[in-house]
Amino acid sequence: MTPTLYIGNRNYSTWSLRGWLLARASGLRFTEKLVSLNANEHAGVYREFSPSGLVPCLVEGDIVVWDSLAIAEYLHEQYPGLWPADARARAWARSICAEMHSGFRALRGEMGMCIRERVDVRPWSGGLQRDIDRVCAIWTGTLQRFGGEGALLFGAFTAADAFYAPVAFRFRTYGVAPDGAAGEYLAALLAHPFLREWEQAALAETEIVEADEPRIIYKDKIRS
Known about the structure:
The chain has 224 residues and is an alpha+beta fold. The chain has two domains: 4-78, Glutaredoxin (3-Layer(aba) Sandwich), CATH 3.40.30; 87-203, Glutathione S-transferase Yfyf (Class Pi), Chain A, domain 2 (Up-down Bundle). The chain is built from ten helices and four strands. The protein has helices spanning 14-26, 37-43, 68-78, 87-102, 105-110, 126-147, 159-174, 180-191, 193-203, 214-217, and strands spanning 4-7, 31-34, 57-60, 63-65. The chain has a four-stranded mixed sheet with strand order 2-1-3-4. It is globular, with a radius of gyration of 17 Å. The termini are far apart.
């Protein structure tokens, strides 16, 4: 049976993007099923397939995996390569993914992903600036330690790049332009074929999720 990956609207759903990137990078042959964020808000339809009521959710026969970190580990067991082979690099990669998974609350709350938008909501809050600085420090430090010859965090595409991909889209939307290695990584990640594929599908979507629309959220703050 072909696995099914349930995702939300591509333009807005950061965790769906992570799950989808993990599946694409693993080499898994899967079917994707998009279920509207609006539909879930009104009817809670995610609970029909996801025990947590959240996306992404990977269903393979009677196996259900409903969290992005769990999806990364599940896929890595079957298709090794999502995590770096070197133990030191692998520990670092898991740590920065866990930090993204549980932290960066200001970034999540104040810079929601909306791939097609370009807005200016400065001045940024102190908490948001600290989150931006921490992301840039993670990118720079990881590249210095483990980047090697490749343009991505650990050379080739790994789970770590999947976990920071929504941040790349957020930075572009809100005009965050890091200097040095972090800026080069941002450009390389946005140019990766997996992200370009997701982006093109996101730009083709027409459904609006008002709760995630920057021009609605920040209508009094956006600069002309």
